[in-house]
From TrEMBL:
Mg(2+) binds at E32, N34, E255. ATP binds at residues 32, 197, 251-260, 262, 287-290, 313, 340, 346. It catalyses: gamma-L-glutamyl-L-cysteine + glycine + ATP = glutathione + ADP + phosphate + H(+). Its cofactor is Mg(2+). This is Glutathione synthetase. Its EC number is 6.3.2.3. Homodimer. Pathway: Sulfur metabolism; glutathione biosynthesis; glutathione from L-cysteine and L-glutamate: step 2/2.
Length: 364
């Protein structure tokens, strides 16, 4: 796509910036910024409703006040951003196309976006896998994307972020076809790559934020949220990670959970990667390991309640929509709270490591 030098006038990003509370400094440090397929805008909204309802019913017993659980409208706001992008084309018969996995497990999270798109904005959504797009899709000479004879003006990716989503050339062709069309891609390929760990690490280098922002106070605020992030060509850091692997997380350029390396495996992997040399090291970044304070919580999974020491991760949803130089939306859109047993390194809910949770605001 860089060779084609195609201009994308409309950019749509539905993000989630994830944070953990560092117990040493008591500050929220960013885990990562997701720019593709951010999950749970649908389910987190109703889990918050569930918690509020329970507190309304049993709050006196628990000494809790439902008003202290902030409202969460992530799914409505994401649907609104998708609808606004759709509006930019002004083609009434066009649809939003959601790209999903063949055996989709997040369907009931995605459902809420489809529902609000239809009920609040009158927009129809179709669901397609990458291989279905390859079989049924074409781009007209004017750039219009047509899938199964329907005009598609917004492509919303809830798949396509893991190599497993591309088992054959067909899926890559589908991705290229959509990219070549004039439809809004949420995200486009370049916007997708901005969410990689490598870019996060490059943004944390001195003088890089200054290229994108002018306001010094804003730059300082952003930087306060950055944990230590290093490229593996920094030999000093690699050496100290081999000596103290527990203080670091080794991350490949992957999404979807389950790919990070922790503890003694960090040492082993770094020694192996150094031996391999060449590009092997540049496929990873090193990150300061964040240690949030653990607290006792009751977690419910599959209808069974467990008490355990837990840590939580806060995700802040955000939407961004721009047409040429005009920024149409740049806003926060609710939150995702995930809580997991403190002994687990990974954080995925669908992956089975964490449960959905809510925020409870206190005066302290
Ligand atoms: P992915 O793109 O696979 O979701 P993340 O960077 O979000 O990758 O890492 C997955 C999980 O690993 C996070 O949800 C978090 O629970 C844990 N994790 C990631 N980075 C750190 C870190 N620096 N310190 C402690 N835990 C981390
Ligand atoms: Mg993550």
């Amino acid at each position: 796509m860089m060779d084609a030098n195609k201009k994308e006038n409309i950019r749509l990003g539905l993000h989630r910036s994830d944070y953990m509370l560092d117990s040493e400094t008591n500050s929220l440090l960013q885990i990562e910024l997701n720019t593709i397929s951010v999950s749970f805008p649908g389910l987190c909204s109703i889990v918050t409703e569930l918690h509020r309802t329970l507190i309304n019913q049993y709050g006196n017993l628990l000494c809790l006040d439902a008003k202290r659980v902030p409202g969460n409208e992530a799914s409505r706001q994401f649907a609104k951003a998708l609808a606004k992008a759709w509006d930019e084309f002004n083609v009434d018969s066009a649809v939003v196309m959601m790209i999903v996995q063949p055996e989709e497990r997040n369907m009931y999270d995605q459902y809420w976006l489809v529902k609000y798109l239809r009920e609040s904005h009158g927009v129809t959504t179709i669901r397609k896998t990458l291989s279905e797009v390859e079989a049924e899709g074409r781009v007209l000479p004017d750039g219009t994307l047509v899938v199964n004879d329907r005009k598609v003006t917004v492509v919303y990716f809830r798949a396509g972020y893991t190599p497993n989503d591309y088992p054959s050339e067909a899926e890559w062709s589908a991705r290229l076809l959509m990219e070549q069309s004039s439809a809004v891609k949420c995200p486009s390929i370049s916007y997708h790559l901005v969410g990689t760990k490598k870019i996060q690490q490059e943004l944390a280098k001195p003088n890089v934020l200054e290229r994108f922002l002018e306001n010094k106070e804003e730059i300082a605020k952003l930087r306060q949220c950055f944990a230590g992030l290093w490229s593996l060509d920094d030999e000093e850091v690699v050496k100290s990670a081999i000596e103290n692997p527990d203080l670091f997380v080794l991350k490949p350029q992957r999404e979807g959970g389950g790919n990070n390396i922790y503890g003694l495996d960090v040492r082993e992997a770094l020694i192996r990667l150094k031996k391999e040399g060449g590009d092997a090291l540049s496929a990873y970044i090193l990150m300061q390991r964040i240690f949030p304070k653990a607290s006792l919580a009751s977690l419910v999974r599959g209808g069974v309640c467990h008490e355990a020491l837990t840590v939580s991760e806060l995700g802040i949803y955000g939407a961004y929509l721009r047409n040429k130089d005009k920024v149409i939306i740049n806003d926060k859109c609710g939150y995702l709270m995930r809580t997991k047993v403190s002994s687990s390194d990974e954080g995925g809910v669908a992956a089975g490591f964490a449960v959905l949770d809510s925020l409870y605001l206190t005066d302290k």
